[in-house]
């Protein structure tokens, strides 16, 4: 426990290290900039999370149920959550997030708040609990657990009756966060239409956030507006090329709002933002979020999945890849094969860091830095992998990577932000030396690291 005395001592240490440096450099000190909490840091370092969309839509072959589905239609005959979590684990995913309730209102756990749940389905004779089986499987395979509880509910008769639905939603959240052990991510989407009575609902976000903080203090909360992790602004797997983990919270104040600057803030963040709120890139391995047999031939290829990794994790984001279970309650073989293929490809690609065999020299000023590596046995370089020590905040604003082939320098890649990780791929080049120049930064860019790979 932190005592008041510890707190004063820590504050004194911060003040002592902060003042002289700020005065000397005449530029904002890193200590003045927002930094991640330990949960946000862990969330980002995990890189990959698997999303599982599953529910009555799986059986009605729809993407958005209207809330009128018969609970009896939910009948996964061979449901086994272990193959989900084993496939996720083997492919390097660290978290799995399940749609405990989607917009149709059907609850995958037996909730006391509604009849519209697994309890009224033939699944396990009405005694089943998919959330329990899922969370148990995550624990068995050492995965972190996340739950998606759609605020929009097209089944609830009290939806739009503001206080009553907010009570119901709070009760559902409380059930989910108190029955199943540690929950690491709570996912709130931004879709917000009308309920069965044609009314719209105003959600009580402060109340929702307080419930999560009280019941699962280490969990991160995702939504367009965070508070811990923000939506990246599209569902096609592409984070902003410029992507700050800081945002101005006045621009996106609640999930589902649009307005000037919203998409830009979600995609790119804001270098002057006062809040640390890194972006999560959610995208499906198939055209739809739910499993549809007609899309079994439209599963993303291994190449495509590797590209997604580059355009999400490789742009200072996290990849939340949706792999939807089938009506049997299993992952489709094609999806599982592609995941394994993606892992193999990434493992090969990042197996041998060429910088480790070379000689590195570094130079640092208040806002710039150079890292130059002399490579051994002039190799082919096709991927540069940059990172900042984000536990101290994010500062790099512009950089260039150049290669020297014995005759002269030429540009290999150029970019703006780095953050947790920036990956650039380019036509493989035979080079003897590689130089990273940080051309601009918000404060001293002293935590930058460069790795180099052949790219194959
Ligand atoms: C959106 C939903 O409307 C989609 O159906 C899907 O669940 C996606 C991840 O979030 O808001």
Descriptive overview:
Strand 4, helix 7 and strand 5 form a beta-alpha-beta unit. The model is unreliable at 1-26 (pLDDT under 50). The protein starts with a helix and ends with a strand. The radius of gyration is 24 Å and the shape is globular. An eight-stranded parallel barrel has the order 1-2-3-4-5-6-9-10, surrounded by four helices. It has ten helices and 18 strands. The protein has helices at residues 4-25, 38-45, 56-60, 81-90, 130-140, 162-179, 205-215, 262-268, 302-311, 333-349, and strands spanning 48-52, 95-101, 144-149, 185-187, 220-223, 229-231, 246-247, 275-276, 279-284, 318-322, 359-364, 369-374, 380-387, 396-404, 409-415, 422-430, 433-441, 449-453. The relative contact order is 0.13. Helix 6 runs parallel beside helix 7 (205-215). By secondary structure, it is an alpha/beta fold. The chain folds into two domains: 4-32 and 352-453, Galactose-binding domain-like (Jelly Rolls, Sandwich); 38-349, Alpha-Beta Barrel (TIM Barrel). The chain binds beta-L-fucopyranose.
């Amino acid at each position: 426990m932190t005592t008041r005395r510890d707190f004063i001592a820590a504050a004194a240490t911060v003040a002592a290290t902060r003042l002289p440096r700020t005065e000397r450099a005449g530029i904002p000190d890193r200590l003045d900039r927002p930094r991640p909490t330990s949960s946000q840091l862990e969330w980002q370092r995990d890189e990959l999370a698997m999303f599982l969309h599953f529910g009555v839509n799986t059986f009605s072959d729809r993407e958005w149920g209207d809330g009128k589905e018969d609970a009896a239609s939910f009948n996964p005959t061979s449901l086994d959550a272990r193959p989900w979590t084993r496939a996720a684990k083997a492919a390097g995913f660290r978290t799995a997030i399940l749609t405990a309730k989607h917009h149709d209102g059907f609850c995958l756990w037996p909730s006391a708040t509604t009849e519209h749940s697994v309890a009224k389905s033939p699944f396990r004779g009405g005694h089943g609990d998919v959330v329990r089986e899922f969370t148990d499987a995550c624990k068995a395979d050492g995965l972190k657990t996340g739950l998606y509880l759609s605020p929009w509910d097209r089944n609830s008769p009290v939806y739009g009756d503001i206080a009553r639905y907010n009570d119901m939603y709070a009760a559902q959240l409380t059930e989910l966060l108190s029955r199943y052990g540690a929950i690491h991510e709570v996912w709130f989407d931004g879709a917000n239409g009308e309920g069965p009575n044609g009314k719209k609902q105003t959600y009580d976000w402060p109340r929702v956030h307080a419930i999560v903080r009280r019941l699962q203090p280490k969990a991160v909360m995702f939504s367009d507006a965070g508070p811990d992790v923000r939506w990246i602004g599209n569902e096609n797997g592409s984070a902003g090329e410029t992507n700050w983990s800081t945002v101005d919270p006045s621009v996106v104040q609640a999930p589902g709002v649009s307005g000037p600057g919203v998409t830009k803030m979600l995609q790119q963040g804001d270098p002057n933002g006062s809040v640390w709120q890194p972006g999560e890139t959610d995208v499906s391995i198939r055209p739809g979020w739910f499993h549809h047999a007609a899309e079994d031939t439209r599963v993303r290829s291994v190449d495509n999945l590797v590209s997604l990794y580059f355009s999400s994790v490789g742009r200072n984001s996290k990849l939340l890849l949706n792999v939807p279970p089938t009506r049997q309650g299993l992952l489709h073989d094609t999806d599982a094969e592609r995941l394994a293929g993606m892992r193999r490809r990434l493992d090969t690609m990042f197996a041998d860091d060429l910088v480790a065999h070379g000689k590195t020299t570094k130079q640092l000023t208040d806002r710039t830095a150079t890292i130059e590596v002399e490579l051994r046995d002039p190799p082919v370089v096709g991927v540069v992998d940059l990172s900042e020590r984000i536990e101290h905040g994010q500062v790099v604003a512009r950089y260039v990577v150049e290669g020297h082939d014995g005759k002269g320098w030429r540009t290999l890649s150029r970019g703006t932000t780095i953050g947790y990780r920036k990956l650039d791929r380019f036509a493989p080049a035979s080079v003897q030396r590689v130089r990273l120049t940080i051309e601009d930064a918000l404060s001293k860019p002293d935590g930058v690291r460069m790795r180099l790979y052949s790219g194959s």
